[in-house]
Every structure is written in structure tokens, then in C-alpha cells.
Write a structure and sequence with these properties.
Four copies of one chain form a homotetramer. By secondary structure, the first copy, chain A, is an alpha+beta fold. Chain A has five helices and eleven strands. In chain A, a hairpin with a 2-residue loop joins β4 and β5.
Chain lengths: 306, 306, 306, 306
């Protein structure tokens, strides 16, 4: 007989997908930031669950307003810093909020070229690719910054990569249900979802050069994908994470999820044709999904989950 | 200076989104099962990451084949049981696989009515709603069933609910950024994402009545949503979880994610019209997101994460 | 040398995807209508294109407001009638608007059951299926109703149907690139997209029983799909259209688009298993797409395109 | 009483969304083409609709095979030429097929940079933007090329553009339902869907420089969007079409669909802040939709619909 007592477990709430475009001006020249901001708060919220007493609830509508107001009051800047500013605000200013998570997606825009010159205030959206920051802050209202736990994760999603050669797959375990032929030359394609945790540094976290860190990490992910001769997508995954850790001192750990976007060689023999790795069917489903973490040995785990 | 040593952390891999439709026959009358099956394996897979040696890798293609073959050999049955059968197989038959997760989505179909009678082999897809099973099995190849850890979670996604009255929101915390007016009558709408963990039982887990358990749990989720007079979506969330735990002895814990699909009262005053909770704008973004767990006190946690 | 003169051709504009939920009350019992309304206007709009003079432009924001105001002033009722009311309004009240198209999607909701009784104001969304009305009205502001051209089309999208037997495909044309084997038993599945044009009737078009017309037409589409023994999806398409025209006197013409959702028999022979139409792989892409019109001979074409 | 006779009207069928990736090699350096090809045939297909006799039906599976075989036999090249080759093949080789439409979407890939050099066979997907070709060919099997009607349309979709200033909207028609304030400075953003019809030329259509034509047309669309001071999105639409026609002699007509992606100025006054066109809410729905055609006067219409 199960025990009758029912209790509230882990819970959190917040405003998701606050879409904001912020324009900043330097004379005639504009910059834009195009973000999707999601906030979650956890803490002392039993009352609203158990009795509907909302005295401790900071409405999600207020959270949304705060995003817009902060963009004006402080500017947006880099998303890791904007996320930290928001997360610290909620934990510091609202007693019942013991933890705050902020996730920001940033959509890229390039300047349109006009007569060979970049237009001052005209832009075209770049790739399917999205830059991500995930920030978590824990600490009580009276605690102040020194005792807060903070986690900053940067990331990227929607980055689709393809090597048209330089990939093999063979020597795998065989059982009764195995029919896959071995291959010495295949297309390797994936949509990279990557997140990496930053080491705590000496300087205040919102004064770091987040932009350079992101650009360089992205460059190393692409470089390792491209110049790793691959015997498995797992091997490529590890090489990508390892490259980042070797090249970027500020990164503690890299997590990657790499769907294997299968490109199947089309059998042209029925038409009297050969297919020497020329014509492929790009399959939607099913797909392999390879997930893995590469980390720096000896670095402490974060106190905050991600 | 960060330590130079780079190591492989947590990792897993498998085939995702294996789409299978299985037809079973009882004379002229057919039954269909329409599933989307995803598998992940974790264990001793360092070699493929570090050197590309795939000797311990069971290809994701083989995993896919196993799904289809098992549907023939054992039938599909209820998805919790099908998931357990698959997960046990991989952990038991493939030494390096220490853990296996199987996630199955089941799409519903109703019989088409012909002249007032259900057609024997003609079907129409039901709702946007999807039934879910998530199974995890841990244990070595030689361990046998008695020492395995097993987790069975059932769930539902895409279940969209709306109360057109019986919902208030007021008495909340106010700060500098608060503009939301209090309301004594609003639409409450959400898209339920629910998962619930089953208690280990006396009988073999694949002989339980999973279908009844799912149907009844779903009925209680809907009932609690409909007849809870709501002062916050958090209160409704807790009521839904509590109802399931009070009514279904086999459930240890319920996790709910409830996006608040805001329906905003349209201001008709500029047109000389009143709006007595009659005309609403259904907003897409941003939305509140309420997440929470309701559990049975004193029940052991699962050894396996979900 | 191409002629230098550049001219404005066909054009139209309007507000798309106005999301409205309207609640009506009969004592404690509520009804809801959940719509997505899109409007387009064509007429004398050269000035805004050529010089940016907007004097003749009715802003799309005003169109949106009109949808909400009309829901209050006139109620929503059936979507064909609501669409006609809106389209007539724009053509009659705004001189430059010579034509108006209104497209409405209606999402279905069922009452939640509470203790075996339907709840008075609690609802769950039904299927992926959407009811559609497309209305077009042409005529000048001074013309009045008698000289207007009007077109009313009803429709359905997202209706997914499957026959698990009763379908063959053979005897087709073969050429050098044909590899498809003939089959005497296959799954036939499709996602119905159907639209049907209503005959002009004696009574005012907004007093027709649109609800019954829709429900019965839907019933006949399903019935014909289910009880047609099919030698090709084209044959099933024709049977569906023909059934509607034979059974529903108010319908002039039916247009159907039926993607062939291929279900491929999985080859289980490598595992020593047979597959007697039991286990199928549900493929996403590519898919066959069958489009066709079935009409009543001798009925005049509509003066308005659809 | 409606006439009893039911007849088959317009119809067509074909294989949709054939996903093909073709790799070509020049030594170590690879090129890839990533396409989504859809085919439709119309002609003498009454029998399959009325009786299920498929003798005149070229299976959609064969159409798919033809795409893959042609990629090997003839190469892919530019998508307009590949589409023409496929469409002519079906009309010329299969008697009952009187018309053929081929629509091709091409996804862009950039070379990954390695040490400042483009990698020889590693690629990253570009933007959300897709290049499109739509080809139609009409003519009997015995007709030969000289009497065929042919239509070639190029296009682009998913091209998202934004001007952060240089856009006004005022002086519009006002009625009872108007509440929109006039604005002298707004963000103008849209997702361009453009298609343009090519003039028949002297040289064979598959020897034209389709790539340059596409690149230049795209450049002019962006240029006109960026340097048009806009009083309405209609004015911008016309300017974009006109620019293309003035600059590209090979284009007969441009069709544009421009959703107005509204960016709403956030009211920061409740927080004691001003908002000088700095902080915007990017709204999803509803949206204005502006559609228009700009054409070269005096050029004959195509005999084929598009």
C-alpha cells in the first residue's frame, strides 16, 4: 500500500521566450541585438502551489518587463553578461527566489552590402545557427555577490556541418540483427548542438571577452570537425571537445549532441550506372544520436546543474 | 593555468526516431500501433571516442533493426512493456552496454465509423496528443534480471486544455517593473507535458496493465485541471499531480511542465464596446512556464535519472 | 532588348493569422470558438506602391481590430458566415477595396468529462485536424449585395487517414528507371487536405446550416476513404470527391490534395523472420502527392479564383 | 436540384521532396549540391481515377529514381537547368504526361575555413535562405522541343531582412476601428519570398548563366530593400521588383510576398524610462502580408501558370 502523504517536490517557474530586438546607434551606424530570453526561478514557492497564495510570486509578466527595462538601463552587450545581470537581479532583489536560470538565444544578422560598402542600418539574417548563453545563479537575497554560486555556459545550436569524404565506419560489433555493411568512405554530416562551461576567472564575469571566447570556440569546433579523419562520429565528437579544451583556457567542459544525418548511397546499378560516392539520399529519420562530454581533468564540478 | 589533461566524460549513443507501424489481425479486424522509438546506450565506449576502434560499438542501424524484428517476434503490446523488452535486450546481450534508455512515443488512431459501425481496418489519427513511455535499465550482461535497476516512466505530451472561467490571479509580489493588473476571471490554458514514475511492483513489470494505468492517469489529470478553482497555474499543477497520486497507487511521482498559454482580453473600448470576458487574443510568445514535481513522501528515489 | 517600362501588376495585402478565442455563455455553460483569421484586400492601391501615399490604405492593424470588434458585435457563429460578414464589410465600407478574401482556420475543442458528465467550461483540444472556410467577395462600394460576386469554400486540413489493407498498386507503366515492385496488399495512408465550393443557394448565404454541411461532408470523405477498395490513391481521391457530390447537393466542386504517406514493408528475412504485412517503416520523405478536382458537370465556374 | 453527373476535373500527381546530395570532385577538392526536388505530371490520367487502371501511370517511385539517375548521368549543375532536363524528359518520354512541373529547393553550403584556407571537402550550411527553381514544360511526346511551351522561374525564400530606421507609416485611411498611431520611425522587417520569371532567350535555356542571374537578382533585391526610404512596405515591395527589372534584362516579371514582421516599441514609461526606438518586442502573430507583382510592360504572359 503506498503511503498517503503527497508532497511538493522540485519546482520552478518563469517567463519563456521573451523576444527582444535592441537597436544601438553610433551616429548613422546602427547595431542590433536579436534575442530570445527565457527565465526560471526556484525557491520558496510552496504557498502558491498548496493554497494559491501568490504573495511570494514575482509574476512572469514582471520578469518580461525586466528584460525590456534592463536592455534600456544597462544595454544588452554580450548575452552571457546580460544573462548574469538578469539572474543576479532576481536572486538579489526577490527574497523567495533562491535560484535563477536565464537562457538566451541570439540570432545573427549581417550587414547588407550596398555598392561594396556595409549599409549603416540594413541587415540580413544569418544561418540557421543560434548562439546560446545559459546562466544560473544561486544565493539568498542577503548573501551578496561573494557567496553566490554562478554558472556560465555558452553554446551553439543549429550549426550543420558536412564532410564529403574522410569518414569510415567498420569493425563494429555484429549480432543477429546486424545488416549494415562496413564502409571506407562515407559522408559525415551532423547538426551540432554544443554547450561549454566557463571556468570561474579572476575578473568579474561580466567583464570577460565573451564575444572572442565564443568566436574562437566556434572556430575550433568547425576546425576539429573538418580536419579529423573520422572512424566514428564518436571520435569526431571527442576531437571537437578536446580541441576546444586545448585551445581555450577559459573552458572547463564541453557537451556535444551530434545527430548523425545519414546520407545513404543510392543504388544506381538497376539503371546500369555506377555510384562512386557521388549521389546520396539525405534521410530524415531515423538518425543516430551521439552525445558526449569532454572535460578538463581535475576541475571542480559546478554546484549548479546544467 | 588550466590543467592540460583532457578526459572523456559521460556519453551515450543510439538510434533516434525509429518510426514503426505494426498491424495485428483478428480475422478481418485489424489493430495498429504507430510508434516513434528512440534508444540510447551507455557503458564501455571509450575506445571509439579515443581511437575510432568500434569493436564494442553496436551500430545504431542494428538497434533500428532490433526494433522491427522484436515487433514481429514478440509483438508490440503496450509501449512500457515494449520499451522494457528492448532495453533489457541491449543490456543483457551486449556486454559493453551497461545502461539503456528507450523512449517511445505512441500516436493515437480511432476507427473510422461506417454506417454507425467501426470499420474493421480503417483509421483516423487522433489529437495532437502523444502517449509516452520512457524506460531505463542498468545492469551488466551477467547480472540477470534480479540485480538490474529498472525505471519505468509513462507520460503524455501535446494535451491542450482550457478553462474559460474559474481562474484568478492576484495578490502577487509587486516591484518596480510590475505592470500586470490583477484579475478575478481569466482563461486558463496550457499544453500539458506530464511524466509519471511507476512504483516497482510485485508482478513482472511487463505484465502490468499499462493501458488502464495510462487511461486512468490521463483521466485524473483532466479531471483535476477541470474542477480545480485556480488562483495560480502552480495551484492547478499541484492539484493535478496530487489527484494522480491519490487515485493511482502504482504511481510514485508526477512531473509536470505547464506552459501558460496566455489569452489576453482585447480592449474593445475604442470601438464603444464592452468586453465581458468574451473576446480574447491567443498569444504565442512569451509565455509563462510552470514546472513542478509532486511525489509520494517516503518512496525511494530511482537509482536512474529521468 | 527588353522594354524599359516597369508596371505594377496584381497585388493585395492584409492582416494574416489573427488569433481569436471567443467565449459565449448560456448560464454556467460556455461555448468557445478558437479561430485563426487572415484577410486580404485588392483594389485601387497603386499610390502606396508607387509613391508611398497611404490615403487609400486601410491598415492591417485596423483589419485585425475589426475581427475582434465583429466577434463582439455580431458573434462568431459558423466560420463561413463570419468570413462573409467580414469580407462584405471591407468591400462595402472601404471604396478602394474591390475584392476581399477571408480565410479562417477553426481549431476543435471537446468538453472534458467530469464524473461522466461534460464539464460546463473546461475543454481539451481535438485532433491535428483543422476546419477551414475561405470566402471571397468582389464588388464596388456602391454596388450593394445584389451585384456582388461571392465565393464560399469550406475545407479541412490535417485529417490523417489509414487503411491497413484493401489497397493494391500494380499494372503501372514501366520504363528504364522503374524498380518498384507491384503489390497486392499495402497500407494506404494520407493526410487529407480538402476544399469544396458551395453552390449559390436561394437563401442568404449566412443563414445556411454550415455546421451540418461541414459535418456531413467530412463524414462522407471518411466513409469513401474507408470503403473504397483501392487500386491507386487517384482512385480513392476520385471516390472521395464523387461521394461528396452525390450526397451533398449544396456542393459544386471538391478539390483534394492527398500526400501518399508511404509505409514500407520492412525486410525481416535477414533475421530469419517473415513479414506478412505486419511491420512497416513509416517514411517521411519523399512522398507521392496526388492532387485532383471532382466537380458537378454543368455548374458554372466561380468568377473568383480559389 | 443539382445535376447528377460527376466528372473529373484538373488533376496532377508526382513525387514530392526527393532529397538528394550530389558530390562532384576536382582532385581533392569537392563540390556539393544539396537539393529537394518535387515533380508533378498532368495529362491523360482519367483511367486511374475512374477505374484504378494504372497502365498510363508512371509511378512516383520511378520519378524519384529518375532524379538520382539524372544526377549521375548528366550532373546536377544549376537547378534551373536540372529542372528543365527532368521536365523535358517526362513530357518527351511518357506519352500520357502532357505537362510537367519541377520545383527544386537548393540549400546553401559554405566551405569551412582551416587555417585561413577553405577546406577541400568540409562544409557548413548557410542561412535559413533557400534558392528555388520552378520549371514547367508542356507538349506532347511527339512534339519535340520546338513546339514545347516552357516556363522557368527562379526564386528565393527564407531571406529575412531588417532596416532599423528609414521607415515611416502614416497618412492612412481611418475608420471606426482604427487605433494604430502614425509613426515617423519604425523598424521594417520581412522574410522575403520572391519568384521571378525569365524571358525566353536566344540561346538554349539550359546554357544560360543561371548562377550569375540568381546572384545578381538577389543582390538587387537586398540593395533595393536597404536603400529605399520607405513610407509603406508596399512601396518597398515595388522598389525591389522595379530594381530587378531595371537591372536584369533576362527577367520578365517579379512576384513578391512580404510578411510584415512587426517590431513593436516597448512602452518603458511605467519604469520611468524613455524608449527612443531602442527596445522592441518582435511579434509572431498576427502579421501584415503584402503580396505584389512587378512586371515589364508589353511582355507576353506565359502560357503556363505559376
Amino acid at each position: 500500500m503506498p503511503p498517503a502523504e503527497v508532497v511538493l517536490g522540485e519546482n520552478r517557474y518563469g517567463k519563456a521566450e521573451v523576444r527582444i530586438v535592441a537597436v544601438s546607434r553610433d551616429g548613422d551606424r546602427h547595431e542590433i541585438k536579436d534575442l530570445n530570453v527565457s527565465i526560471a526561478l526556484a525557491g520558496d514557492f510552496d504557498a502558491t502551489h498548496l493554497t494559491g497564495d501568490n504573495a511570494d510570486v514575482l509574476p512572469t509578466d514582471t520578469q518580461k518587463n525586466t528584460v525590456y527595462a534592463f536592455a534600456k538601463e544597462h544595454g544588452v552587450g554580450e548575452i552571457e553578461a546580460f544573462g548574469l545581470r538578469l539572474a543576479r537581479h532576481f536572486v538579489d532583489s526577490h527574497g523567495p527566489s533562491r535560484r535563477c536560470w536565464v537562457r538566451i538565444e541570439e540570432y545573427g544578422w549581417d550587414r547588407i552590402q550596398l555598392g561594396g560598402q556595409p549599409a549603416p542600418h540594413s541587415f540580413a539574417r544569418t544561418g540557421p545557427e543560434t548562439r546560446i548563453a545559459e546562466v544560473a545563479v544561486a544565493g539568498g537575497a542577503g548573501a551578496g555577490g561573494s557567496s553566490r554560486d554562478e554558472l556560465v555556459v555558452s553554446g551553439i545550436s543549429g550549426l550543420v556541418l558536412l564532410n564529403s569524404t574522410g569518414s569510415e565506419f567498420h569493425g563494429f560489433h555484429q549480432d543477429r540483427y546486424t545488416t549494415l555493411p562496413e564502409t571506407r568512405d562515407r559522408i559525415l554530416a551532423t547538426e551540432v548542438s554544443a554547450r561549454w562551461r566557463h571556468l570561474p576567472g579572476d575578473q568579474p564575469v561580466d567583464q570577460r571577452d565573451w564575444r572572442t571566447s565564443f568566436d574562437e570556440t566556434r572556430r575550433h569546433l568547425l576546425g576539429a570537425f573538418a580536419d579529423t579523419y573520422s572512424l566514428s562520429l564518436q571520435q569526431t565528437l571527442y576531437a571537437m571537445g578536446e580541441r576546444v579544451l586545448r585551445e581555450r583556457d577559459e573552458v572547463a567542459e564541453v557537451r556535444l549532441a551530434l545527430p548523425n544525418r545519414h546520407h545513404l548511397l543510392v543504388d544506381l546499378a538497376p539503371f546500369g550506372l555506377t555510384n562512386e560516392s557521388e549521389v546520396f539520399y539525405a534521410s530524415d529519420r531515423p538518425y543516430g544520436l551521439i552525445e558526449g562530454t569532454v572535460r578538463r581533468a581535475g576541475v571542480a564540478e559546478s554546484a549548479l546543474a546544467w
